[in-house]
Amino acid sequence: MSGSEVRADFWMSEYITPWDIYVHGIISVLAYKKTAYQEMYVVETGTYGKGLVLDGKWQSCTGDEFLYHEPLVHPAMICHGSPKKVLVLGGGEGATIREVLRWKTVEKVVMIDIDGEVVEACREHLPEMHQNAFDDPRCEVVIGDALDYLDNTDKDWDIVISDLSDPIEEGPSFQLFTKEYFEKVRNIMSPNGYFVVQA
């Protein structure tokens, strides 16, 4: 077995399957909290930079988040051609809205996240990800339930992006991977709108 000099005193294991784990060496814990919805860590790792971990699952990290957020946003935006109104469901780090706001055609982006404590921790500790997108005048952040918002919003969204945590039964995203959720999204989209789901 090959060896190397170990520099981390704290190791965080992510269970990929019941028999496989990925272990991250943590340099420091920037934020930790059990919120009303989930267990949250914002950490700095030895390899991937800063990262957000929710309920033991890595959401994204500064070292490679662009590999997730750019393809999550831009294909639908390109297919639409001139999106004006974009709805992001989830997206606590702010990197999805950062990518949306690169489009000059966008007049309004609304980000709905159920966990305000996660959003605040990301605003404070992950500026590399959001790059001040939260402060753009075209952006509105709503702390609330995405299902409630879908029931009460206008019906003309050009792009809807579902940027959610894994649908584990105890987690806050479980109800956002159902037939009812997809029907609600379809009902609020413009006729030439696009819906994006990370899966």
Summarize the structure.
It contains 6 helices and 10 strands. By secondary structure, it is α/β, with parallel strands linked by helices.
Structure overview:
- The structure is a single chain.
- This protein is an alpha/beta fold and about 200 residues long.
- The N and C termini lie far apart (about 35 Å).
- The chain folds into two domains: about 10-60, Spermidine synthase, tetramerisation domain (Spermidine Synthase, Chain: A, domain 2, Roll), CATH 2.30.140; about 65-195, 3-Layer(aba) Sandwich (Rossmann fold), CATH 3.40.50.150.
- A hairpin with a 4-residue loop joins strand 3 (about 40-45) and strand 4 (about 50-55).
- The chain has helices at about 65-80, 95-100, 115-125, 125-130, 145-150, 180-185; strands spanning about 10-15, 20-35, 40-45, 50-55, 55-60, 85-90, 110-115, 140-145, 155-165, 190-195.
- The chain is built from six helices and ten strands; from the N terminus they run βββββαβαβααβαβαβ.
- Helix content is about 25%, strand content about 35%.
- Strands 1-2-3-4-5 form a five-stranded antiparallel sheet. A five-stranded parallel sheet has the order 8-7-6-9-10, with helices on both faces.
